Amino acid sequence: MTATASDTPAVAHFRFFTLEVLRTRRLGHSFLRVTFGGESLADFRSGGFDQSLSLFLPPSGVEHTVLPSTDEDTWFGAWRAMADEERPVMRSYTVREQRRDDEGAVEVDIDFVLHGDTSPASHWAGRAAAGRRILAIGPAVADNKSVRFQAPADADAVWMYADETALPAAAAILDRLPAGIPVRAWFEVPHEEDRLPLDTAADAEITWIVRAGDGRERTGRVLDVLRAAQPPAAGAPYVWLAGEAGTVRAARRHFVQERSVDRRSVRFTGYWRLGASEEQLLAEAYAGKAPSEDPASEL
Ligand SMILES: Cc1cc2nc3c(=O)[nH]c(=O)nc-3n(C[C@H](O)[C@H](O)[C@H](O)COP(=O)(O)OP(=O)(O)OC[C@H]3O[C@@H](n4cnc5c(N)ncnc54)[C@H](O)[C@@H]3O)c2cc1C
Q1: Which of 124, 148, 120 is nearest to 19 (CA)?
Q2: Residue 215: what pLDDT?
Q3: What percent of the chain has pLDDT over 70?
Q4: Which of 153, 186, 216, 242 shows the greatest Cβ crowding within 10 Å of its Cβ?
């Protein structure tokens, strides 16, 4: 007898985990690596590549994250109903690496960009200390929808653009790419010292764009660099773009309109938007006003 999908109990792809800070380490100028552990991570299953998760970070001055409910049916309403000054913020981050320590316990690294003390996640990261606990909704199965990098089997090259918020994801993607695949990557960072060492078996050529200027100026600079580049010819490139939403949209138009890449082969994600907190972006998403990130969507 053959088992069918209806015989197998549904496995929840995501669930709550408690993450305890084990240690921190400064990387480059703008990054802080926070290494988390804790018993609940025994069931954590990162799919690698650009695996993301949602962190719940406590208000300033509060030691650990507390939510009224972590039940999958009730947590959202209970979280939204909390008083503003008590409600933990929810923020998206990337699993830079999941591994086991010498005793077999799971550790997870998350690389935070420190972009100032007034934004909740950056503020929290700047004060992360061993023993502090947060909550996260993360992957319980490796094959999950929060791994956005999905290069088709016939892709013959990978082209990437990332700003600093997406550099942890880009680094994790480079970790996983097979030997020899041609990669052309453009990574935009705020400071010279943010040009972090990257390991890959792929045949990667990386251009670092050290930022100068803000807003339109920064997008314009990235476009100038992309336009001047001459990536080796590829028949079926897969393009992955992530970072500030305006720059990501402009880069998508560049690859589709100026380099004739099939738009269905371009995976693009706005990781943040200049002038908007993640609450504002979530509010747009709940109201159905968020710009589509479907690769098939209009440019
Ligand atoms: C799938 C996904 C994965 C992500 N992975 C990572 C990751 O691994 N590491 C990481 O650092 N970030 C990552 N981000 C981006 C991160 O979620 C945002 O930068 C987030 O806004 C930070 O929250 P905050 O509380 O610090 O700032 P918010 O309260 O959300 O924003 C406050 C203000 O700061 C601005 N702002 C937000 N981020 C930055 C920034 N980096 N530089 C300058 N200004 C900024 C906003 O435009 C706003 O004006 C990811 C985002 C997504 C969607």
Answers
A1: 124
A2: 66
A3: 95
A4: 242
Pocket of ligand 1 contains residue 40 by CB under 6 Å = no
Other beta carbons less than 10 A from residue 41's beta carbon = 21
- Picking from 267, 271, 279, the residue whose alpha carbon sits closest to that of residue 57 is 279
Listed residue (202, 140, 145) closest to 177, CA to CA:
202
By DSSP bridging, strand 133-139 and strand 14-27 are: antiparallel
What pLDDT is recorded for position 11?
66
Which pairs from 216-220 meet CB under 8 Å and 24+ separation? 218/188, 218/244, 218/247, 219/244, 219/246, 219/247, 219/250
Global pTM reads 0.95
More confident residue, 231 or 164: 164
Spatial separation of the C-alpha atoms in residues 156 and 216, rounded to whole Å: 32
* Spatial distance between the Cα atoms of 62 and 173, rounded to a whole number of angstroms: 34
1 pLDDT band, cuts 50/70/90, is: very low
Residue 196 tokens read as 């972090």
Nearest protein Cα to ligand 1, atom 33: 277
